[in-house]
């Protein structure tokens, strides 16, 4: 099936079926699913495709890969999306505007109108900003306990930060590490009381309050942190094999700042339903940019698969709505529910009537197509409706196939 773009044939406006912002694991997986479903896919990426996994030395928790280098996995994801014909463009998305069905993506390479949009722009970790942090990234400095905690079995580690994430992750790290130092610049944690109490009760956790880390030091790998008390100036050198930095993570959503239609949770994370659809119709979000529990490659890929299929379904239904119900000069449609056996019986009678050459009546499963039902303001089922160029001319609630025939004969 080839679905046409809404703007096919219009000169001067680049129009695409599915535009995906970000070619990390979420965006690349969405591209694979979208292409396999038969829709046109354009991925917009401002950096390297693969996203955050490009800066991940080792990945040990992506199913099927007992051990992979981040770049190796990034390349495998990209090659897979290319194999199915996804198109890539190197550009930065500057803004997105949603006006009903029209979704406009402004980039430094021009504007694109999309039938459906997936935001898979990921997240960025804030850095502590101390000496040695960049140098030892991937050699003892980490930003993800779930990813790297298991590398520190029976070894001492430090956590930098004092919010909920820092305390939760410190608690998680005590499952592996021999000792966890939480180094925080303030005298009090910013986390919830329950997380603070949990940390206080954990014998493996030592709190180093009122200190900032001046340096992360070592040889090939991290060996110690140098911390300084902000009031007294006291210097503490703490021997650790790993340093986990949790001083903040934020979604990459600067380009949404001018848009109010996409709901966001505290911190700016995008809110979606279980189909990854945002509060703006036809706009989906997948991966780390979403308001979610676990930010990992596998969950980003899972979100991407759902978003890719949901976007396909959206485009398909929009296309069907336009071509079968809204565009024709005259059309009669039967709106029913596929979970009601009486509705199904009427639908099959309509099917057999069509086979004998009668005028076509479009059958719409309004149970599965809630969006179409809402758009066309279908309140009761089953109902038969006559449209002329997308405008309702008349409608009648029906009980039997004969009711539909009577309705049509009155035309
Ligand atoms: C150091 C580190 C180690 C990690 N280790 C592991 C691990 O071992 N196992 C694991 O499962 N997970 C790990 N993770 C987490 C994992 O990498 C992420 O959960 C995953 O990459 C999220 O995928 P994503 O596609 O949602 O976002 P991202 O990977 O962040 O990709 C988003 C993409 O969008 C692009 N983008 C953003 N804004 C724009 C814009 N305006 N215009 C165009 N493009 C844009 C970015 O350049 C990026 O390429 C690690 C993360 C880090 C940082």
Describe this structure as you would to a colleague:
This protein has helices at residues 25-36, 70-83, 145-148, 164-173, 193-201, 297-326, 341-355, 370-375, 401-409, and strands spanning 14-21, 41-45, 58-59, 68-69, 87-90, 93-99, 102-107, 110-119, 123-125, 141-142, 156-160, 179-184, 205-209, 211-218, 222-229, 235-239, 242-245, 249-251, 283-285, 331-336, 361-365, 383-388, 391-397. Strand 12, helix 5 and strand 13 form a beta-alpha-beta unit. The chain is of the alpha/beta class. The strands form 6 sheets. Strands 1, 2, 5, 6, 7, 8 and 19 form a 7-stranded mixed sheet that branches. The protein is built from 9 helices and 23 strands. It starts with 13 loop residues before the first strand and ends with a helix. Helices cover 27% and strands 29% of the residues. Bound molecules: flavin-adenine dinucleotide (FAD). The site of flavin-adenine dinucleotide has 38 residues, from helix 1, strand 2, strand 9 and helix 6.
Number of helices: 9
Small-molecule binders here are:
flavin-adenine dinucleotide
Radius of gyration: 27 Å
Helical residue percent? Answer: 25-40%
The best one-word shape is elongated
How far apart, in Å, are the first and last alpha carbons?
33 Å
Specify the biggest β-sheet: 7 strands, mixed
Strand percentage lies at 25-35%
The number of strands is 23
Rounded mean pLDDT is: 92
Structural class, judged by helices and strands?
alpha/beta
Poorly predicted ranges (pLDDT <50, ≥5 residues)? 1-11
């Amino acid at each position: 099936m080839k679905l046409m773009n809404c703007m096919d044939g219009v000169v001067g406006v680049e129009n695409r079926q599915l535009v995906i912002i970000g070619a990390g694991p979420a965006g690349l997986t969405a591209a694979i699913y979208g292409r396999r479903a038969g829709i046109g896919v354009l991925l917009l990426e401002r950096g390297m495709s693969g996203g955050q996994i490009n800066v991940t030395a080792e990945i040990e928790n992506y199913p099927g890969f007992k051990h992979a280098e981040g770049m190796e996995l990034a390349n495998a994801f990209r090659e897979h999306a290319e194999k199915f014909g996804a198109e890539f463009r190197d550009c930065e998305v500057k803004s997105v505007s949603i006006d009903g069905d029209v979704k406009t993506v402004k980039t430094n390479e021009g504007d694109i109108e999309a039938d459906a949009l997936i935001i898979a722009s990921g997240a960025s970790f804030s850095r502590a900003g101390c000496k040695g942090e960049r140098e030892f990234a991937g050699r003892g400095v980490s930003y993800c306990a779930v990813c790297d905690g298991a590398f520190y079995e029976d070894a001492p580690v430090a956590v930098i930060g004092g919010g909920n994430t820092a305390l939760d992750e410190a608690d998680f790290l005590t499952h592996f590490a021999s000792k966890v130092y939480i180094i925080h610049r303030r005298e009090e944690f910013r986390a919830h009381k329950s997380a603070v109490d949990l940390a206080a009760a954990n014998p493996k956790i030592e709190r180093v309050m009122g200190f900032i880390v001046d340096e992360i030091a070592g040889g090939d790998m991290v060996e110690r942190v140098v911390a300084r008390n902000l009031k007294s100036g006291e210097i503490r050198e703490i021997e650790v094999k790993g340093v986990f930095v949790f001083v903040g993570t934020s979604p990459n959503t600067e380009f949404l700042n001018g848009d109010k239609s996409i709901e966001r949770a505290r911190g700016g994370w995008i809110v979606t339903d279980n189909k990854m659809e945002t509060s703006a119709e036809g706009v989906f979000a997948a991966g780390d940019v979403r308001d979610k529990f676990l930010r990992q490659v596998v969950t980003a890929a899972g979100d991407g698969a759902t978003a890719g299929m949901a976007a396909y379904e959206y485009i398909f239904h929009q296309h069907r709505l336009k071509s079968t119900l809204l565009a024709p000069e005259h059309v009669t449609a039967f709106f029913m529910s596929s979970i009601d056996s009486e509705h199904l019986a009427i639908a099959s009678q309509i099917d057999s009537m069509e086979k004998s050459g009668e005028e076509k009546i479009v059958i719409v499963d309004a149970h599965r197509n809630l969006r179409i039902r809402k758009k066309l303001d279908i309140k009761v089922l089953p109902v038969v409706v006559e449209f002329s160029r997308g405008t309702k001319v008349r409608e009648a609630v029906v009980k039997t196939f004969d009711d539909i025939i009577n309705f049509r004969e009155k035309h």
